[in-house]
Design goal:
single chain; alpha+beta; seven-stranded mixed β-sheet; four-stranded antiparallel β-sheet; 18 helices
């Protein structure tokens, strides 16, 4: 999806986690809406609850949410529902979450309109919570859900407790079946359960109270059984927990035969996942309990796991400039995300699911080395020299990064690990940029071919075709220029590694510099040949002048690095 597109995520929680036919009927309603991608369906038998995640444009997501909530209300009878998780409706909660190109405030307005529609057209009462709340106290979901489904009649009839939207003609039996739904807007929330080597719900709750932001009520004498202390208004005085922006409770899960601390994390920038994991481990250990792992419920942002992986690598004094998949593996193993069942990042990380949903099967960078070479050899103009130049630059960056990682792990150089880790991270970033340009160069060539294929019957056609050809040619000039600049930055990495890196790998740094030099000159040739087709000669000459300047500087860098390598051989 393009960055300028508006993308909204919706994560409704349905009060059914055991009957897959019911769950499938609900999710099929979501999939009937064009432009919506169903990313995840996560049923829980013990909680009797299914967390569903889907994304799309705001209007399509709202439509899919409406259909799913109404369908759930017809299929799920709350009078028969029992499960470990708090709930008050067939669709318990239905939050809208801004992903791209849309604000939380805009999602809140969408949520209010959705709640109104669910009530009016679906006959289901709705609260609006979090950012969509009409009153400050209802920002807290717990306030809306107080008493759960069992307090349904009280909620519907007591002034001040009534839902924000009520059906004009209340069908009592229908509402008894559906319960009440909370529709809201919030930032990305991560739900994680920490697995404990105990079956005690009381001890799991004690750990949850230790860490959750709300904490626990203070008692006389500091005793766990003493009288709860209250303020002047009669409210319990709370002893805050250690983790900001977290909510947590303890429970026992029959399915796994263990107790867990179940936590909602509402702001990962304040309390990252790895910080919460370590703190739960600390508090559990203080109570003679061990955390054996963690269970991610629903999806998680990639950054949360990458940050965790880097955190644990740094604790091990290891380089963080390694491939993303390797960082992810460290995060998974460090927090035991595969403790209860296999954890597949391609199925749990929201960015990966979006990537896979839109993945272009024809990407060159996804080919084997052999297939890439064969594709290049065929009788087609693309992939051509510009693409190969970008790949040469990526290989140069990869070699420099390899030397940095080998140096960070060299025996006796432990105190220099952070220094080489920084260089390795720079190298990984350069490699990713150049790998993107591998396919972008081919796409740029294809744009030129598409422009030449435009109709040219009328004068208007000819003018539009000519303008499109010039625009495509300009872009096909700018892409290899970007390749030149990125490849030139590889020299800094390779020179530093040739000077300071593991001496046993000095030739690898040298080969990396030679690859970068070939990339710069190869891309430069493509800039010049494409610039020759630009009608704006002043613009074309500016491109050529920049190319010559970069080539001259590249010659000097190459010579200096080769000399460093030669002197160490």
């Amino acid at each position: 999806m393009e960055n300028n597109k508006q993308i909204v995520e919706c994560v409704p929680n349905f009060s059914e986690g055991r009957n897959m036919e019911t769950i499938n009927q609900i999710t099929r309603e979501i999939e009937t809406v064009k432009g919506v991608k169903l990313l995840d369906v996560d049923p829980g038998e013990a909680t009797n609850r299914t967390v569903v995640t889907f994304v799309g444009s705001p209007e399509n997501v709202v439509e899919a949410a409406f259909r799913a909530v109404v369908k759930a209300g017809k299929l799920i009878d709350m009078r028969q529902h029992h499960g470990a998780h708090p709930r008050m409706g067939a669709t318990d909660v239905c939050p809208l979450i801004p992903v791209s190109g849309i604000t939380l405030e805009e999602c809140a307005e969408l949520a209010r309109k959705l709640a109104k529609r669910i009530s009016e057209e679906g006959g289901i009462p709705c609260y609006c919570y979090e950012a969509a709340a009409f009153t400050p106290e209802r920002k807290n979901l717990a306030v809306c859900r107080a008493g759960e489904y069992e307090a349904l009649n009280e909620k519907l009839t007591t002034p001040g407790k009534q839902p924000d939207f009520m059906p004009q003609e209340m069908d009592s039996e229908s509402v008894q079946r559906t319960g009440i739904t909370a529709v809201g807007a919030r930032d990305f929330l991560v739900a994680v359960n920490y697995n404990l080597n105990t079956t005690s719900t009381r001890r799991a709750n004690a750990i949850a109270f230790d860490v959750r932001e709300k904490g626990r009520p203070m008692r006389e004498g500091g005793s766990v059984v003493g009288k709860i202390l209250k303020d002047a208004e009669g409210n319990p005085i709370m002893q805050p927990g250690t983790l900001k922006c977290t909510k947590a409770i303890g429970w026992y899960i029959d399915e796994y035969g263990i107790a867990q601390v179940s936590m909602n994390m509402t702001n990962l920038s304040v309390t990252p996942l790895h910080k919460a994991f370590d703190e739960v481990c600390r508090c559990a250990q203080a109570r003679g309990i061990r955390v054996t792992g963690a269970e991610i419920v629903g999806l998680i942002p990639k950054k949360a796991l990458i940050d965790a992986g880097k955190y644990y690598l740094e604790k091990q004094n290891r380089s963080t400039g390694i491939p993303e998949a390797d960082i992810m593996k460290i995060a998974i193993k460090s927090m035991g995300l595969d403790d209860l069942k296999p954890f597949n990042p391609r199925e749990k990380v929201i960015e990966y699911l979006l990537e896979d949903a839109e993945k272009d099967a024809s990407l060159l960078v996804d080919m084997t080395v052999n297939a890439f070479a064969e594709e290049t050899s065929r009788e087609s103009a693309a992939p051509g020299g510009g693409t190969i130049s970008a790949y040469m630059g990526a290989l140069g960056a990869a070699l420099g990064t390899m030397v940095a990682n080998l140096s960070s792990h060299k025996a006796g150089w432990d105190d220099r690990c952070p220094e080489f880790s920084v260089w390795a991270e720079k190298g990984q970033a350069l490699m990713k940029e150049l790998l993107f340009l591998v396919d972008e160069d081919t796409r740029a060539f294809n744009k030129i071919m598409a422009a030449f294929g435009l109709p040219k019957k009328t004068d208007e056609d000819k003018a539009a075709r000519s303008a499109a050809i010039q625009d495509a040619t300009r872009y096909a000039t700018q892409v290899p220029l970007q390749t030149m600049k990125a490849s030139f930055r590889v020299f800094e990495l390779c020179k530093q590694m040739a000077k300071e890196g593991n001496p046993n790998s000095v030739t690898d740094a040298g080969v990396g510099a030679l690859a970068a030099h070939a990339a710069v000159f190869g891309a430069g040739m493509n800039v010049r040949i494409n610039a020759a087709s630009l009608k704006d000669r002043e613009e074309a000459e500016a491109y050529v002048a920049e190319v010559r300047s970069i080539m001259d500087a590249a010659d000097k860098e190459r010579a200096e690095i080769v000399e460093i390598v030669e002197n160490k051989l």
